[in-house]
Amino acid sequence: MLNMKLRVTALLAILAITTTQAQQLTSEMLNGLKLRNIGPATMSGRIVDLAVVESDLYTFYAATSTGGVWKTTNNGITFEPVFEKEGTHSVGDIAVHQAQPNIVWVGTGERANRQSSSWGDGVYKSHDGGKTWTNMGLKDSHHIGRIVLHPTDTNIVYVAAMGHLWGPNEERGLYKSTDGGNTWDRLIYVDEDTGVVDVAMDPEDSNILYAATYQRRRRPYGFDGGGPGSALHKSTDGGKTWKELTNGLPEGEYGRIGITIYRKNPDVVFISLEQGFQYNASTAYNERRAGLYRSKDKGESWEHMSDWNPRPMYASQPLVDPSDESRVYMMNQYSYSSDSGRTFTAPRQSLHGDDRIIWVNPNDSRHVIKGDDGGIGISYDRGIKWLYVSNLPLSQYYRVSVDMAKPYNVYGGLQDNGSWVGPSETYRRDGIINADWKRLGGGDGFLNLAHHANSDVVYTESQYLGLARLDMNTGQRQSIRPGDPQGKIGARRNWDAWGPGVPEPELGNAMAPGNWDGPFFLSYHDPHTIYAGTDQLWKSTDNGATWKSLGNLTTKVNRRELKIMGRRADEHTPSLDDGIPYYPTLTAIAEDKHKPGMLYAGTDDGLLQVSWDDGQTWNDVSGQLNGLPKGTWINTFETSSHTAGTAYVAINNYRNNDFNNYVYKTNDFGKTWTSIEGDLPADRVARTLREDPKNPNLLYLGTELGLFISNNGGKNWVELKSNMPTLPFNDLVIHPRDNDLVLGTHGRGVWILDEISALQELTPEVLSQQAALFSIGEAEQINYTNDGAHTGDMYYRGENPRYGAKIDYYLKSEVSKENITLEVFDLSGKLVQTLNPTNKAGLHRVHWNLQHESLKATNSRPNSNGRRRGYQMGGPVVMPGVYVAKLTVNGQQYEQSFKVSDDPRLNIDIDVRREWNESLFEITSLYEQVIDEMKATQLAGWKVDELKKEGVSLDEKTLAPLDEINRKYNELFSRTRSLYFEVSSYIGPWTTDQHAQFNYYTSMISKLAAEREQVVKNTIPRLNRGLKKDQKITIE
C-alpha cells in the first residue's frame, strides 16, 4: 500500500478558546514533539577511548568526545547509546571492572586539548552495564585523563583529573576513592594550572602506580602545552607517597606524558614525553627533543628509544602489546614499532588517520580495535586489514544549512571529516543510508551554502576560511579564499617574525589570517554577492572571483605580548598555539535582511562593530552590551526576518574560563543592545541563536548543553529535550518551505523536528486556553520503495519523517478520555477516520495515515494467553484534496483544514486518480464481504479444534465439509487481499487479469455461500449429535 508522508504548508490560523491569564511554557509540555536523527554515520566521529570486557570480547564500550558512550554486545555489529541523558556529552575515559564487568566508570570531559574540546562534569558510575548512571563527584575537574580500577577491590578507584582547559581551578590532580566513589582523597596536587593526564597501575602489584602531571592552558589567542608542573611520578604504597622519576629523562620543561606498562613483565614501562623546539601549530616540532622512553626497572631509569611522538598535546599515548614487548603502538598518527620503539612504521590506512586509542587483545595480538576521529576499526591480522564500523552516527557539525530541493538537502561541515550533503528524507523504506551522503570537501568542514540562484553551485568551506565554489554536476572546484595574493603555505604560522634558524618561506608570507571557523555568507539582496572574514571583512560581487577589503576589524593586538599562565611564549613552548595559528580574526558576520549595506561583524578578541554604509565606515558598539566582559568571543549573529534593524548575537566566553550565558538583541540597527538571557540555566554557553521566520517572539538557542526555545522574545527559556540526548547544538536553521527545524549537533549528527507550526503558534496567550489545535502542514501520499539488497545488521538507517499528516494539539490540563475526540472529515462533512488522541496535559502530535477507517478485522483466535487480535487492514487511501481535523475537548470544538496531495513524483490525471480510488472501495467491499462470510465457519472450525483438545471424538468424514469450506474461505480471503495490495501499489487502470480476478472472486462468494448453507443444514447437525449443550457447534 501507499505509505503517506507530511509536508508542511500552514493553511489556517489557530482556533482556540480565549482567556485572559497567560501560562508559562515548560520543557515537559514539549515532550510530545519527537525529533528524528538522520545521521550521517558514513564518516562516524571522534572515538576517545575503548573498554573491552576481557571475559566476553564481544562486549565493549566506545567513549566519544561529544557523543556520549556506546556499547556493543556482538563485537561491533550493532551499538546502542548508553550514556546520553546525563549532565554532559563529552567523555575523556571509560573503564570496566574486569572482575565485575557490570561495574563501569566514565570520566567526562575529553582529554584532548583541542580548540574545540568540550568539558564534562566529573565521574559517573554504573552498576548495571551502562543502563543507569550515578554522578560520583569531581564535577569541576572538567577533563578526566584516565580512570584506573583496582583489579579485585571494586571500591578502590583512581582518577586522573586534568582540570579546566581554559583557566585555573582547584579541583585537579590525582584522586583516589576507597569507598566506590562516595568520597575522594587527592593524592597529587601541583597547582591550579597543573592536573594529571595519565595514571597506570602495575598489573602484578596494585600498590605501584605511575602518574603524569600535566601543565597546560588554552586561551582564545593561543595554547601553552607544558611547564614546570609537568612531570612523571611513582608510588609504591597505593598513592600515599610519591617520588618524581627523572633518571634518564631530559632536562627542561615537559608537555604531555603518556604511560603504558608491559603486562607480562611490569618491570618494562614505556612513556611518551613531549619536548621540542619551534612547534609549527599543526602536527610536529621542527626539532623533537624527547619522544618515546623505555624503562626496564619499573621507572628507576630510562632509555631514549626514539623521538616519535606526533602532535602530543592531542593524543600523546603509547601502548605496548600485552603479549609482545617489542610491539609498541603510538597514537595520533597510527603507527607501530617492532623493535621496542626504536623505529616506527605509519602504514597507509583504509581508516581515518588521526588516531586516539588502540586496544590489543591480551590473548591474541592479531585482534586489535582502534578508535580515531572517524570512528572504530577492528582488525584480526594486527592492523593489516580493518573492518570499519559504519553505523555510529557521531558526526560533529560546526555549521548546517539547507537547500530548496524536494526533498530538501542538508549541508554541513564536520570536525576533521570534511563537508557533506545528504537528503533530509528519502522515498526509500530504509530511510537515509550512508550511500545517500556525498562529500563536498575535505579537512575540517564548516559552513556550506547552496547558491541562491543555482543550487548546482555550492560554496564549501574548510578550516581557516578555506572557501571554494563547487559545481555539483561536474565536480569542478575553484578556490575563492580572499586575501592570498602570494599564495598559501598552510596554517602553520604562529609568529609574526620567525626566529633565528627557522627557514622563512621563499616566496612570500603565509596565507592571510583566518579563524578556525571562518565566517562567510551569501547576500540576501544579491545572489552574486558574498561577504567573508579573515582578519579583514571582504566583499565580492562576482561569486568570489574578485574581492574588496572592507577593513581590518580586529584590535590588531600582537598576541606574542599576551601571557598564558603568567608567561609569554618562546621557541621552547610545548605545542605552542596548536589549533590557533592566527589571532585576532573575525568570527561572525551578518547583514540585515531588509536593509542592504547594514552589516554586523564580531571578532575573537571581543569587538562587535556595525556598519550602516556597506563597510565604508564602522562603529564599535562592544561597550553597549551591558554585563559583557571585555574580550569575549562573538559567535553568531542573527538578523530578523520580520523587522529591519532587529538583530541578535550569541556570545561565549568559555575560552576565558567564563561559562556564563551571553545573548543580546538590538532593535535599532546595532546602536543599543539588551540582554535576553532571561532565566536560562547557568553555564550552558551560547553557540547559536535563530529567530523564527513566522513568529518574531519565538527564538531558538543552541548551547553547549542543550537546545532552548523562548516564546516571548527571550524573557523566558525552556529546554526542548523530548527524545534528544544531551548534546552541543552548534547551529540550526528553519527550512523556509517545509517549516522543519534542522539542528546541527557537534557529536550526534543532524536532528530534525518536522513541521513546527505548533511551536510557532504556542504563544503565551494560547497556553492559557483549555485547548488548541494548530495549523496542519500539507501531507503528501508518498509511495516508499524497497530498493536495497541484503544488508546485514551493521547498517545505518537515518530516520525518515513518519508518514501521514501531523496533527498537533495542546491541552492545558488533563481531561477524561471520554471528553476528548480527534476526527478527520472531508469537505462534505463525511467522517473519514477517527484518531486516538492522548488526554494528558501538554503539546501532542497525532499522525493520520491519510487513509479511511480500517477495514473489518478477522476473528481473534483464542490461545494460551487469552485472545489475540485478528488481522485488520487499513482503509483505502484518501483522494488528494482538502480535509478538516476536528478536536473536541469537553464539548468545545477546534478545527483546522489542511491539504493532502499526491506523491510529488507523480503526474496523474485527476479523473484517473478518482476512478482508481473508487476501485479501491470496490475491492474493500468485496474483501469485507469475504470476512463476514468466513467468520462464522471459522469459529465453528476453532470450536472443533477445542473439542479435539478436550478429547471429544468427532468423525473425520463428517468434519470434511466444514474443513473444506474453511480452507476455501481462507484462500478466497488471501486472494482478495492480494488483489487489493496489487491494485493499491499502482495508481491507474486495472489490468485485464485484475478485472478478471475481481469478477471471479465475486462469483466465488456466491458459490461458497451455497456450499456454506449445505454445511449449516447437513454437517453441523450431524456433528452436534451426542454433544453436550456447551459443546454444540454453531454457524450463525
Structure write-up:
By secondary structure, the protein is mainly beta. Among the domains are: about 350 residues, YVTN repeat-like/Quinoprotein amine dehydrogenase (Methylamine Dehydrogenase, Chain H, 7 Propeller); about 120 residues, Four Helix Bundle (Hemerythrin (Met), subunit A) (Up-down Bundle), CATH 1.20.120. The protein is about 10% helix and about 30% strand. It has 6 helices and 72 strands. The strands form 19 sheets. It has a 6-stranded mixed β-sheet with strand order 1-64-72-71-66-67, with no helix packed on it. It has a 5-stranded antiparallel β-sheet with strand order 30-32-33-34-35. Strand 50 and strand 51 form a beta hairpin. Helix 4 packs antiparallel against helix 5, helix 4 packs parallel to helix 6 and helix 5 packs antiparallel against helix 6. The N terminus is likely disordered.
Name its key features.
1036 residues; Methylamine Dehydrogenase, Chain H; Four Helix Bundle (Hemerythrin (Met), subunit A); 6-stranded mixed sheet; 5-stranded antiparallel sheet; 32% strand; globular; disordered N terminus
State the gist of this model.
This protein is mainly beta and 1036 residues long. The protein is built from six helices and 72 strands. The chain is globular and about 110 Å long.
List strands and helices in order, with pairings.
Blueprint: E1 5-6, E2 15-16, E3 36-39, E4 47-52, E5 60-64, E6 69-72, E7 80-83, E8 91-96, E9 104-108, E10 123-126, E11 134-135, E12 144-149, E13 157-161, E14 173-177, E15 185-188, E16 194-201, E17 209-215, E18 217-219, E19 222-224, E20 231-235, E21 243-244, E22 257-261, E23 269-273, E24 276-279, E25 285-288, E26 291-295, E27 303-306, H1 312-315, E28 318-321, E29 324-330, E30 332-333, E31 335-337, E32 354-360, E33 368-372, E34 375-379, E35 387-388, E36 397-402, E37 409-414, E38 418-423, E39 438-441, E40 449-450, E41 457-462, E42 466-471, E43 477-479, E44 520-522, E45 530-533, E46 536-540, E47 548-552, E48 586-591, E49 599-603, E50 608-611, E51 619-620, E52 633-639, E53 647-652, E54 662-666, E55 674-675, E56 686-691, E57 699-703, E58 706-710, E59 718-719, E60 729-734, E61 741-745, E62 750-753, H2 757-761, H3 764-767, E63 771-773, E64 779-781, E65 805-811, E66 820-826, E67 831-835, E68 842-848, E69 862-863, E70 866-867, E71 881-889, E72 892-902, H4 910-949, H5 956-984, H6 992-1024
Parallel strand pairs: 64-72
Antiparallel strand pairs: 1-64, 2-63, 3-62, 4-5, 5-6, 6-7, 8-9, 9-10, 10-11, 12-13, 13-14, 14-15, 16-17, 17-20, 18-19, 20-21, 22-23, 23-26, 24-25, 26-27, 28-29, 29-31, 30-32, 32-33, 33-34, 34-35, 36-37, 37-38, 38-39, 40-41, 41-42, 42-43, 44-45, 45-46, 46-47, 48-49, 49-50, 50-51, 52-53, 53-54, ...
